[in-house]
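Batch 3, record 17
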Amino acid sequence: MSDTALQIQSLLREDRVLEVRLAEVPVPAPAADEVLVRVEAAPINPSDLGLLFGTADMTTARATGTPERPVIEADVPENAMRMMTGRIGQALPVGNEGAGTVVAAGDDPSAQALMGRTVGVFGGELYSQYRCVKAPQCLPLHEGTTAEQGASCFVNPMTALGMVETMVMEGHKALVHTAAASNLGQMLNRICIADGVPLVNIVRKPEQEALLRDLGAAHVVNSAADSFGDDLTAALRETGATLAFDAIGGGRLAGTILGCMEAVAVEQMDAYSRYGSDVFKQVYIYGALDYTPTTINRNFGFSWAVGGWLLPNFLQRAGGERMQRMQRRVADELTSTFASHYTARVSLAEALTLEALSVYGRQATGQKFLVTPQA
Amino acid sequence: MSDTALQIQSLLREDRVLEVRLAEVPVPAPAADEVLVRVEAAPINPSDLGLLFGTADMTTARATGTPERPVIEADVPENAMRMMTGRIGQALPVGNEGAGTVVAAGDDPSAQALMGRTVGVFGGELYSQYRCVKAPQCLPLHEGTTAEQGASCFVNPMTALGMVETMVMEGHKALVHTAAASNLGQMLNRICIADGVPLVNIVRKPEQEALLRDLGAAHVVNSAADSFGDDLTAALRETGATLAFDAIGGGRLAGTILGCMEAVAVEQMDAYSRYGSDVFKQVYIYGALDYTPTTINRNFGFSWAVGGWLLPNFLQRAGGERMQRMQRRVADELTSTFASHYTARVSLAEALTLEALSVYGRQATGQKFLVTPQA
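Prediction for the assembled complex:
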C-alpha cells in the first residue's frame, strides 16, 4: 500500500473562485480505537453538492488541471460570498458517506473486530481512497453485502427513518413529503407502507406521480396541477397529516401545506375563531432544492411552525438507543427497504469532469452518481 | 337594572359586507358558579381589531344606522373572504378583556365572594354593558384599584410575562422584541429590567428609540437605520439572545433576526460547517401588524424555527400553577409594571363612529383607546 492516496478537496479562494481538485494526501495510521477503511463506493448526495460547490455559479464552471489531476473552477458571485467567508483558504475534503473494507485497525478490541469487514461509514471525507475513522462510526454490513450496496447506508436511510421517528416523538399521526419521487422519497414510501404510516407524497410531474403509485403509494399529489390545493387538502383530510418534510425550501410550498392542513382542521371546529384552529401544524425544511426565500402566507392561525431539520441534530436529540435501533434496521434491510440505485459510476478523477458535473450537478430526480475511489 | 343592555357585534354578511353594530341583548342571570359584571372599561387591542373588522377593506368603511344605534359597514375583497367563511351570518360579540363591578352572583361560595368587587375579566364579549362569566375567569383587583386601571390586566401583562416564561421554559437566556415601543413593549421592558433579563428592543423610528432609552432600555435598535444589521448583530452578541417575539409578521424582519443570530453563533465556531451553527434560533410571530407574507432568506443553517405564538395556547402549555403565579404578579404590580395608558375614552356608540375608527383602526404605536360601556 502506498503511503499517499487521492482525495477530492474543495477550496474557496480569496479571489472568489471555487476550486475543486484531486489532491494527494498521506494515508493515516489508525489510532487504538480507529480503523483504516479502503473506500470502494461513495454516493453523490444533494448534501454533498453544497460542500463541493457551495454558492458558486456553476454556469461559469471550467475544467483546468490535467486528466490525472483534474480541477474544476467556478466563480462565486459577490453577494454569495458572505455565506462562505468562514471557509476561505481551507481545502475541505468532501463525501458524507461511503463503504469499503477495513484494511488496518488499532489495538482496541472494537477496532480489531472490524478487521477485514465490509463497513458503511459516515462522517465526511469519503471521496478519498482511504479514510481513517473511529470504530463506532462504522456500520458493519452483513456477510455478502457489497460496498456498493452499503455505500448509501447512512444519509438517506437514517433521514427517512428519522422522519418517521420525528413523527412519533412529536405526536403526529401521518406525514407529508415533498420531492417525493427522489431516492429518499421512495425509501420513505417503502418504510411507511411497511410500518402502516399514512404518507402524502407531493411531486412535480405526472410521471413521478405514476412512479410512486406503481410503488404502492396511496396518496400522491402533483404540485403543478391546477387542482393541487384541493388534491392536497383531500389527502390531508384522509390521512390526518399535520407534519411535513420539505426538501425544496424556497417558494410558497411550505406555506401552502400549512394552509391546507389548517383548512382540514377548521372543517372540524365547532365554532369560528379568528385565531384559527389550535391544531399544531409543522413543516420541517431539510433541503434546499430551491435557494430562493421561503414565502409564507400566514393564513393558518397561530398554531404552526416552520423550522430546519438536520440529521446530525436529530440524532443527537433522538439518543443512542433509538439511533442503534435505526441502524440495525438499515443493516437488516439494506438490499430491500433501503436499496439505492445509481445511474452512473465515476472514479475520483471522472467526478471532476464537466461532463459528469453537468449531470449530477443538476440534482434531477432519478439521477444518482456513485464515486468509486479505487477505480 | 334593565333586562336588556347594549353590546357591539360584528357580522359578516353573505354579500361580502362586514357590519359592525350596536345591538340590544338580554342581560343574563348568573348560574351558580357565575357572576354578572357591569363592564366599566375595556381596551381596544390589536387582537380585538381582527375580530371587529376581519379582513374587510377599511378604506370602504361607511357609517349607517342612527347616532343611538350606529353601524359601520365595510366591503370585504373577494380574495379575503376565504379566511372568514366560517363566520358568515354569525353576529359575533367582541372585546377580549375589560374590568368592572360584580353586581350579581350565583350561589356558589366562589361566586358570592366576588359580590361587589372590582374585577378584571378575560374571555371575549367585553364591549358589552354586562358580561356573565365563571367566577375563576375574574381577577379580583386590590382594594382601591379602579376598573380603568384593571381594564388591560390580561392581554398585554400575560403576553409580556408569557414571553419571559417561554424564554425560561425553552432554555434561552435573552429576548428580542419587535414593535418594542408599543404599550406591550414598554411593559416587557419594565419586566426585563426588574428581572435582569437582557432584552433587545427593535423599533422603527428614532423617537421610539429615544423613548425606550429614556425608560432605561439598554439595547434599542432601529430597523429603519442603514446600520440595522450591524446594530442588531452587536446587540445580539452582547445579550446572547436566541429567541425573538415578532408583532409584525410580514416582510423580511423575522428572517433578518435569525440571520444576525446565526452570524453571532458562527463567530464562536471553531471550524466551518456548511450546515451553519448548531445554536437553535427561534422567532415567534405573535401579531400581524403587517399582513403581507413572511419572507425568509434561509441563510442561517438548519437549527432554527419560525412559528406562531398565541396567549391561550401558551397558557394551556404553561399550566395552572405558572398561570396563577403570573396573575398574582399582575394584580400586585397593576399600577406600576403593568400600567396601561389610554389616549382616548369612547362609549360603545362612539367606538362605532368613523372619526374614532380612523384613529384606533390605524394601530399606531402610542395610540390606545378605552371603551367605557356605561358612559
